[in-house]
Amino acid sequence: MIVATLKESCKNIRVYARYNICQRARRGVLKEKKGFYIDEYVNLWGYAVELISSNPGSTVSIQVHRDNDGKAIFYRLYACLAGLKQGWEEGYKPFIVFDGCFLNSVCKRELLAVVGRDGNNQMFPVGWAVEGEGKQSWKWFLENLMKHQLSIDLRPTSRVPTRADNNMAKTSNGWLLDARCNSIITMLEDIRILKNIEQSTHSRLIWNGDGRFE
After folding, report:
1. Paired strand residues for 207
2. pTM for the full model?
């Protein structure tokens, strides 16, 4: 539940609550339900190992900074599942959209994503990263995509129509609205099991005008 929804609920039952009170209440519930956010950062490396071991061929890259005491501080993460790599290679359309959205949790970063179209013309997530948006961030993200999975020519002159680009970007942001409010591992898991991925694997019957479906 987002803070605005919580505040609206209070209004409906005629209980006055300031925004910061609703925010603290929401964080308290999330901590009790999902654990402290910091615990999930500590467990990121174990999560990456589990992803790779349970999905052979997947790519997970974590980068950290070191403070003055040598302590690792999370910097950025890139992930792409093996099934998505295979699906992209075997059934993709040469059409992709790059998009990003701000995270609404304690993690004040940005979620960068690449979304394509599959053979059924459905949205097909290709890869994603947790980063701070900027020129270097997108450069690092694209380098990972090119290194680990994309086999199409991403020349600087390649482009898509503005309307198609905007529609795809709005759609990709739409299925991230709930996930981006969660702590980092919970958010990554929500993205991994998105219903959009499952739904896009189903065949769609199309009348071909020649007396049969295909």
Report:
1. 213
2. 0.60
In whole angstroms, what is the distance from residue 131 CA to residue 110 CA? Answer: 5
Main-chain phi, psi angles of 55, to 5 degrees: -135, 75
* Same-domain check for residues 114 and 185: yes
Same domain, 73 and 171: yes
Radius of gyration of the chain (CA): 20
156-179 pLDDT, tens per residue?
444 444 444 444 445 555 555 566
First-to-last C-alpha distance (Å) of the chain: 42
- Per the structure, the complete domain to which residue 88 belongs is given by 37-199
Percentage of the chain lying above the pLDDT 90 cut: 1
Residue 76 belongs to some domain of the structure: yes
